[in-house]
């Protein structure tokens, strides 16, 4: 019974990672860059929703909407200001810029929202579900997070494969130059990718803060890295891979805490990652694209 | 409201700069009667600024970042004491001046802040507010032979040289006293501990708690660690504590993580006693925190803002008037630190405020072991290794406020 409880907690943690990993994988898959500022956009999303919901007293759904719109715009602005000028630079330059952006957002939040921790009010009003005479409880936040992640995963997959802008994204991801020659507006497509990725970050921010309610300028950084690991684990660039990678990382983390050692859990998570990448370098669901010469 | 946030943030940034200008003026504090806080008689209290000069006291601490609550409390507590002392005529005829530099609880930034304070002319250091930065600051201060009295850095290594002292309890002390208190009060026999293995403060307390608990017949049924890389999900820790039948969960950690633990325990329906140390101080000041979650949480701390003795009442009301909030333990420690410096300056008969910091240190480190300070955190004396002797008080959170037990 305890095992089930640990498992459920692992899935709950993993579903948060999965949601964040979706944004990572989306941007990586299409723009071919690691957006290390993704975790911090999540944090900003959390603060925006907190401000409009708690400080300004707006209804929950309006606040969430404001958060999504704000983060979407923020993502587009970040892309325009920081990443677009580096479109033809080496990938290392873009990576460093993304790390810089991550620190910039953290410090910006520090100045704007102050240093003290804030307590986020959960946006989920669903009661926890109790199983086996209360021995296992599943919180409403977990259920909502899983449902939202699955819906977003399906919608994103459909969007990328079935719609015109989505296929433009696929084209850009496969060959930027060729896509441009075929009339795809590469800049606009990448902007759109960032807009979607950052909108996802807002949703992830709201759900993460609902589960783990302490809000500080640093909450995005570590889960961001974990989610990145999850995205690599599942096969970076693959949307279902991000989902599966996230949930698996959550489960491994919790089970190793429970049955091996709470001190070693991080080491175990990363050891598993290394083993998976040794056996399957593209990750669990990663595509192996043959280079045509 | 957004503007208010920006204004607040900007204001807190400016405080650092503004302090440089206001340390030496004594016109803004008139309600300082009966706050004479040391046992030492002050013979020169009438000739305000007659001999002139100031002694400059500097501190580094987090004024921004996730432990800023502590830094700001220390800043306010120290400033209040400095203003009171100056308004009452200063020390031996000269005034005190206090300046605080932000270190964001970062080891490297603390070193930079310490050097900036030295450039400013600091003669006495309050070290750093938090443990890790203080270790680094003291490595410089001990090389410089700068006298250092930290209000609140609890790690043993923070003051391991002969120039350094502290006002608060050390980690081992807190851990041992907590175990002692739990067993004396008969709070529980089966205990779970959740601690941060990546933090010397937290693991330091845990280690001595464990040693003392064994002696006192307490059984630690679960000892679960987390690290600063993964400090939001505590469901497994709580589950293990619950399965092991812990009646009391000991939390030698900071309040942000504690607030998550309390919330996650509640959603699991697990209701043990929660017992913490001074790191929990600040939990009630969190924005939008549901204080009912902390109902019944106990912590061991030498200062209780609602205590009815005259010193505490005077300090709390003066603090409230000046800063519009109830002082926490960090503010009290800083307040006592300044009065301890005053007592030591008087004991060492330091009359020349232009004395260089190294000579000053040689006098003060001897004087510190000879003084007794009747502070708001208790009656304190110091040993030569820099540790304070004082008695801790147990506190419990009731109706969203601290109450002495």
UniProtKB/TrEMBL annotation, chain A:
Its main location: membrane. GO terms for cellular component: plasma membrane. It is a multi-pass membrane protein. The chain crosses the membrane at residues 6-27, 60-78, 90-116, 136-160, 192-215, 227-252, 264-283. Keywords: Amino-acid transport, Cell inner membrane, Cell membrane, Membrane, Transmembrane, Transmembrane helix, Transport. GO terms for molecular function: L-isoleucine transmembrane transporter activity; L-leucine transmembrane transporter activity; L-phenylalanine transmembrane transporter activity; L-valine transmembrane transporter activity. It is found in: Cell membrane. GO terms for biological process: D-alanine transmembrane transport; L-alanine transport; L-isoleucine import across plasma membrane. It comes from the Bacteria. InterPro entries: ABC_transp_permease, BCAA_transport_permease. PANTHER family: BRANCHED-CHAIN AMINO ACID TRANSPORT SYSTEM PERMEASE PROTEIN LIVH (PTHR11795), HIGH-AFFINITY BRANCHED-CHAIN AMINO ACID TRANSPORT SYSTEM PERMEASE PROTEIN LIVH (PTHR11795:SF371). Belongs to the binding-protein-dependent transport system permease family. LivHM subfamily. This is Branched-chain amino acid ABC transporter permease. The lineage of its organism: Bacteria, Bacillati, Bacillota, Clostridia, Eubacteriales.
């Amino acid at each position: 019974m305890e095992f089930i409880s640990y498992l459920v907690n692992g899935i709950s943690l993993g579903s948060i990672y999965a949601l964040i990993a979706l944004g990572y994988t989306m941007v990586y898959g299409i723009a071919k860059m690691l957006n290390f500022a993704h975790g911090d956009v999540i944090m900003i999303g959390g603060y925006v929703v907190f401000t409009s919901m708690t400080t300004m007293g707006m209804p929950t759904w309006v606040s969430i909407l404001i958060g999504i719109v704000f983060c979407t715009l923020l993502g587009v602005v970040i892309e325009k200001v920081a990443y677009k000028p580096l479109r033809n630079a080496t990938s290392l330059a873009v990576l460093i810029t993304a790390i810089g952006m991550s620190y910039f957002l953290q410090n910006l939040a520090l100045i704007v929202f102050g240093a003290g921790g804030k307590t986020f009010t959960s946006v989920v009003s669903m009661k926890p579900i109790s199983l086996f005479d209360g021995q296992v409880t599943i919180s409403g936040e977990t259920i909502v997070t899983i449902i939202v992640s699955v819906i977003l995963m399906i919608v994103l997959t459909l969007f990328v494969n079935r719609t015109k802008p989505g296929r433009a994204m696929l084209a850009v991801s496969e060959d930027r130059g060729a896509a441009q020659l075929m009339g795809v507006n590469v800049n606009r497509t990448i902007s759109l990718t960032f807009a979607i990725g950052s909108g996802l970050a807002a949703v992830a921010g709201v759900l993460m803060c609902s589960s783990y309610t302490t809000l500080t300028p640093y909450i995005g950084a570590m889960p961001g890295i974990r989610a990145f690991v999850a995205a690599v684990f599942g096969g970076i660039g693959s949307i279902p891979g991000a989902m599966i990678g996230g949930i698996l990382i959550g489960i491994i983390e919790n089970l190793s805490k429970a049955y091996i050692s709470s001190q070693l859990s991080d080491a175990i998570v990363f050891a598993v990652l290394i083993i998976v990448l040794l056996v399957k370098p593209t990750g669990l669901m990663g595509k192996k694209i043959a280079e045509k010469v | 409201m957004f503007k208010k946030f920006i204004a607040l943030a900007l204001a807190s940034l400016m405080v650092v700069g503004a302090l440089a200008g206001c340390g030496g003026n004594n016109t803004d504090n008139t309600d300082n009667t009966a706050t004479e806080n040391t046992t030492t008689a002050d013979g020169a209290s009438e000739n305000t600024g007659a001999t002139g000069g100031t002694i400059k006291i500097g501190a580094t601490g987090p004024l921004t970042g996730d432990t800023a609550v502590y830094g700001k409390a220390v800043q306010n507590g120290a400033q209040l004491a400095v203003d009171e002392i100056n308004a009452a005529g200063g020390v031996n005829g000269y005034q005190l001046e206090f300046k605080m530099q932000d270190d964001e609880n970062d080891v490297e930034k603390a070193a930079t802040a310490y050097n900036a304070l030295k450039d400013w002319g600091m003669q006495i250091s309050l070290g750093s507010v938090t443990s890790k930065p203080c270790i680094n600051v003291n490595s410089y201060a001990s090389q410089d032979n700068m006298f250092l009295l930290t209000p609140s850095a609890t790690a043993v290594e923070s003051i391991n040289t002969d120039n350094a002292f502290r006002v608060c309890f050390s980690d081992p002390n807190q851990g041992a006293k907590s175990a002692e208190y739990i067993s004396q009060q008969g709070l529980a026999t089966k205990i779970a501990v959740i601690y941060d293995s990546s933090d010397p403060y937290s693991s330091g307390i845990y280690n001595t708690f464990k040693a003392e608990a064994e002696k006192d017949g307490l059984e630690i049924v679960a000892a679960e660690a987390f690290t600063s890389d993964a400090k939001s999900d505590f469901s497994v820790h709580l589950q293990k504590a619950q399965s092991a039948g812990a009646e009391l969960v000991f939390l030698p950690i900071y309040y942000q993580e504690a607030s998550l633990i309390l919330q996650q325990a509640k959603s699991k329906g697990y209701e043990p006693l929660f017992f913490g140390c001074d790191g929990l101080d600040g939990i009630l000041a969190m924005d939008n925190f549901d204080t009912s979650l902390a109902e019944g949480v106990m912590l061991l701390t030498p200062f209780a803002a609602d205590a009815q003795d005259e010193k505490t009442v005077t300090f709390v009301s003066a603090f409230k008037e000046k800063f519009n909030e109830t002082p926490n333990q960090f503010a009290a420690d800083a307040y006592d630190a300044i009065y301890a410096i005053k007592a030591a300056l008087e004991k060492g008969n330091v009359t020349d405020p232009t004395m260089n910091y190294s000579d000053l240190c040689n006098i003060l480190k001897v004087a510190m072991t000879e003084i007794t300070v009747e502070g708001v955190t208790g009656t304190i004396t110091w040993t030569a290794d820099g540790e304070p002797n004082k008695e801790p008080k147990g506190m419990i959170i009731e109706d969203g406020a601290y109450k002495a037990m």
